[in-house]
Amino acid sequence: MYDVAVIGAGIAGTFIARELTKYDLKIVLIDKDTDISNGTTKANSAIVHAGYDAKDGTLKGLLNAKGNAMYDKVCTELDVPFKRIGSFVIATNEEEMESVRDLYERGIKNNIPNMKILTEEEVKEMEPNLSKDIIGALYAPTAGIVSPWELSVALAENAGDNGCEIRLETEVTDMKKEDDKFVIDTNHGEIEAKYIFNCAGVYADKINEMVGEKTFEIVPTRGQYNILDKSVGSLVNHVIFQAPTKSGKGVLVAPTVHGNLLVGPDAEGLDDREALETTSERIGFIREKSRKTTDKIDFRKTITSFSGLRAKPSTGDFIIEESKDASGFINVAGIESPGLSAAPAIAEYAIDIFRNINTDLKDNENFNPTRKPVIRFMELSDEEKAEIIKKDSRYGTIICRCENITEGEIVDCINRNAGGKTVDAIKRRVRPGMGRCQGGFCGPRVMEILARELKEDIKNIVKDSRKSYILTEETKQA
Amino acid sequence: MLNYNVVVIGGGPAGLAAAIEAKKNGVDNILVIERDRELGGILQQCIHNGFGLHEFKEELTGPEYAERFIVELRNMGIEYKLDTMVLDMNQNKTISAINSTDGFMNIQAKAIVLAMGCRERTRGAISIPGARPAGVFTAGTAQRFVNMEGYMVGKKVVILGSGDIGLIMARRMTLEGAQVQAVAELMPFSGGLTRNIVQCLDDYGIPLLLSHTITEIKGRDRVEGIVIAQVDEKFKPIPGTEKEFECDTLLLSVGLIPENELSVQAGVDMDRITSGPIVNEAMETNIEGVFACGNVVHVHDLVDFVTAESRRAGASAAKYVNNELKKEGTTLKTEGKNGVRYIVPQVVRPENIDKTLDLFMRVDNVYHNVEMVVKIDGKEVKRMKKRHVAPGEMESVKIKKEDLSCADGSKIEVYLEKEACLKKEVYLEKEGA
After folding, report:
1. Which of A262, A394, A398 to mutate to test the interface with B (most CBs of B within 10 A)?
2. What CATH code would you report for A87-141+219-312?
3. Could you tell me the pTM of the whole model?
């Protein structure tokens, strides 16, 4: 019997799991997928918003700015790439300028620090590649970019290091509340826990309805993106949003923490909670829309396109509260944008609710907020590179030639707590396959290393889900 | 700091030929750096035959072709390092590289030959919409799995792109027991050699769907189906022509891109069309003493041509080290137009030409009964009848040294006179493609 079960290992679930390990509790983190961060967290804009956008009085408004301010600490503790590069909201006409000024006002109410409305000249000076039509912009220096899945993985790893049990490929099929505990049915048997955090993303309403009345609904809302080669990653220096107008929110153009360029998303309400397809119509749409920001994006440098599903709540705001029908069951649902930005504060807020219910919590005296540093070979100096290869020769073998990722880094990311077990999981952690060849060269080598480290037959190594097999059988002569 | 006269980056056919030729031209202390586990490059996974017809007048497999050069290299005592990756190279010709036995190395070269080859374009680069399941491979990756690792990548296959690797993999997968349903090609003609269309598709009854593209990939875990549609002249899918093929695998053969990340980072000037370095008659780039050859310069259709080009680069590197490469004298530029997409070399210094200059080029479409014309400084020096030219088959022209005696800054122009040319549709009918 666990004290707490966290359902869903996305950014909210992993933050909460790690926060819970600060107390003396028996915790389990459950996810249906083969990896941490495999839902909404793996496919979004990767932006830590400044926090001017949300209306004051909402949970989004309360938690975004707060979460943003918490990012430096957690990313330092967990050695996760995070860059506070600032954001622009650009305007190309007086109507849009009006909306920029509204955002500024809202930002003041939300206590966003150091915002500034930039003149046309200032915009051009700071971002020379933007469209000539821009007449001004809102500048928020506290906005940042992060690698959402690396953060989520790091949180899970740290939670694991601090005693949280992690059960992947464990799908919740049903749940019932008994006197003082919840009994969770999964594809791998029953799990019992006294308290539940429901962080199930686009499935949060379904999980909620297992123990209570339907109080909200999640509408999966798809957004499609283009990601471009690093050679065009420095086209812009800040996250560039378009001013919202009556016809919609526009698309963003932003560098990623690894130096690529990200363009997107659109928004499309769907019934299907697994619809991660891209469509040529929508990709065409975001490309066209991006021209308002700049016409200098060379889409021939596109590395890949992808789509993500936002967990859009019917209530219009984050739902972070104890269920009225099942005491001890805390919903952390509808975490759509700015969920990533707010995540550290969402966890704190959710834990506060938990502490009000469970008043005799004891601290975990052994809690260690840091994790073993990640060696990112290409970021080392020449001397450090020489040194690390001497210590471990696997750092002398480059597996991914586009991103220059060594065998040492891949082996390390497999063998950590919450380590990668699939080709995509390795790609998210240390980037082989993220580059311009998209795994054409390194794919077979990564599979070979996975098979060796996991002591598996290479035919059992999958791309992502258990069913996403890569090899079918040995060849005739093999 | 390690010191070498010539460092060759890449141990595929281009690098091997360049290193051997440098040695034959009187230079010692040569190093070949190869990032993979063996010499020979992509040839090692090309176990089909048809290599070496020009070079050896016989049909070899890829590994056999490579082996001849590997043996020669070894016999000459040329040093090479495997599993070694160049991380950085600069204008002073200092290289940093790593491997697991030597660790981190700084290497100073007098001359460098870039021979890194090319990579395949991917699904992402051509933005095929749909789901992102397992089972989408570039043809080359599939070839590595099947021919070198000994694993099949699927049972029911659709191939997009009729480049040579795609065609050859259609046959290979068939021979291994897979069912290849179709090869779809965006262009109204194949990008592969005619002999490969006959030997890899026609012989096995695999249909080639010209002017077709993929509009959707189905299947969330593993590929379950591919939707193919016909395209109009602007390559836009024609609504209503979609056809779904049930399959578990999609192979992509949608073009090769020279791998020049290292060259660009070192400041080598690039040609926008070839995506390779701008080179002169000596295969030298804008950085003095840095040469380039093979698919890193432009994508070749036959390895025999790679070998010939790389010999020039290797010999030039040796000349450079021995101070025999002439820098003074006039400089001409080459320019392809009117049907000629690009010409290599882009720069010519007549001083360094012994007897003849070879120009290599590709045309931009399929043409029949055209004339290829060469003009130097506005004066016609050559005119050749061509019964058939196609983008998939590289063309070459020989120019006599005496024709090159003209003013500095003059242009060498090559173009097609197309009055007599037949439209590509007619070509397709005739070839029954």
Report:
1. A398
2. 3.30.9.10
3. 0.94
